[in-house]
């Protein structure tokens, strides 16, 4: 008998209204909701009750019922103090548990999407509690969860389930890209705790967080320092705890500090470029720019004029700029001819 055929047989249970006190909320074998409490489900239950019966296993003579599907609905009823709930009651057999879990998974998929942490919980249970072969989990269940069917993706989610609860709670509420979760999975537990403090203190957006984590990882590998040590340094803590500036300003300051640590020589050269450009002081509304500092061979000069006289004035200023040592320094900098900061 196939899993689908078993499922159809399993669904032909008995429908009854049962007392919520007879539900075993401590048995989380089939739980796949994270977090368990969902305000929208509670509000719906308060307004219209439970339209779709929950699925349970067992009988009144054998203690409490095991919840198979409908944890959030049952939890909402208990929270609201509603005593009775409509249920589809199945026979409780240990041999049927893998099939029952598959049923619960598909029942959930019929009316909602899983977040990253819920997918991690499901894959962890399939791999450990129910001991499904890895190739079956990859082939059958990763696509079912809208994930690419490969071992790398499975391993990322198995690691995710072992993250600290605070970080899992954050990930469950934010639609982070898988690449970022994979990056977090590569860090130690202590480093992830430090990163979570960074996330929670500054409310860093996804793109900037990914950039910061890349800097932290590269600094850690180069200097053989843990990320928690880097973030605990006096310079970084001063930025994170600075209450005089708003979050976005502190994020920019943190990005600049980490970039300087990651590329110290490049940062010094960039600083010299900006300082030299300021000393050049072009007038007449002339702006000197370059597309890629240290990677371009030329600069752009932009200005506006509305009369021949203004054009002549700008031309005179351009001639003056061309004769300054500062311009020569800037051109050498952007062409990469300067490998060390120049003395002032």
Automatic annotation (TrEMBL):
Task: Report the protein name in the record.
Answer: ParB-like N-terminal domain-containing protein
* Domain ParB-like N-terminal, residue spans: 42-93
GO annotations under biological process? chromosome segregation; positive regulation of sporulation resulting in formation of a cellular spore
Q: Which Pfam families did the record assign?
A: ParB_N
Q: Name one GO cellular component term.
A: chromosome
Q: What InterPro entries does the record tag this protein with?
A: Chromosome_partition/occlusion, ParB/Sulfiredoxin_sf, ParB_N
CDD domains in the cross-refs: ParB_N_Srx
PANTHER family in the record: CHROMOSOME-PARTITIONING PROTEIN PARB-RELATED (PTHR33375)
């Amino acid at each position: 008998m196939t899993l689908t055929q078993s499922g159809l047989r399993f669904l032909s249970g008995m429908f009854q209204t049962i007392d919520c006190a007879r539900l075993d909320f401590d048995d989380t074998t089939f739980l796949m909701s994270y977090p368990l409490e969902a305000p929208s489900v509670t509000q719906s239950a308060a307004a219209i009750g439970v339209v779709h019966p929950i699925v349970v296993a067992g009988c009144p003579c054998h203690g409490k019922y095991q919840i198979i599907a409908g944890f959030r609905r049952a939890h909402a009823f208990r929270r609201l103090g509603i005593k009775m709930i409509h249920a589809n009651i199945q026979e409780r057999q240990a041999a049927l548990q893998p099939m029952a879990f598959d049923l619960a998974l598909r029942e959930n998929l019929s009316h909602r999407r899983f977040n990253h942490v819920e997918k991690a919980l499901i894959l962890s249970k399939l791999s450990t509690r129910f001991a499904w072969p890895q190739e079956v989990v990859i082939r059958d269940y990763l696509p079912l969860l809208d994930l690419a069917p490969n071992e790398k993706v499975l391993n990322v989610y198995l690691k995710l389930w072992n993250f600290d609860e605070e970080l899992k709670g954050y990930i469950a509420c934010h639609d982070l890209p898988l690449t970022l979760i994979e990056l977090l999975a590569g860090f130690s537990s202590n480093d992830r705790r430090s990163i979570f403090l960074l996330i929670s203190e500054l409310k860093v957006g996804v793109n900037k967080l990914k950039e910061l984590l890349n800097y932290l990882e590269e600094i850690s590998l180069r200097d053989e320092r843990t990320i928690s040590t880097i973030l605990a340094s006096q310079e970084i803590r001063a930025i994170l705890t600075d209450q005089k500036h708003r979050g976005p300003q502190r994020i920019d300051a943190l990005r600049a500090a980490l970039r300087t640590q990651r590329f110290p020589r490049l940062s010094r050269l960039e600083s010299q470029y900006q300082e030299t450009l300021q000393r050049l002081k072009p007038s007449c509304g002339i702006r000197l720019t370059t597309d890629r500092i240290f990677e371009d061979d030329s600069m752009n000069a932009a200005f506006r004029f509305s009369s021949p006289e203004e054009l002549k004035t700008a031309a005179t200023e351009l001639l003056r700029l061309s004769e300054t040592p500062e311009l020569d320094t800037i051109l050498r900098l952007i062409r990469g001819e300067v490998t060390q900061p120049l003395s002032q």
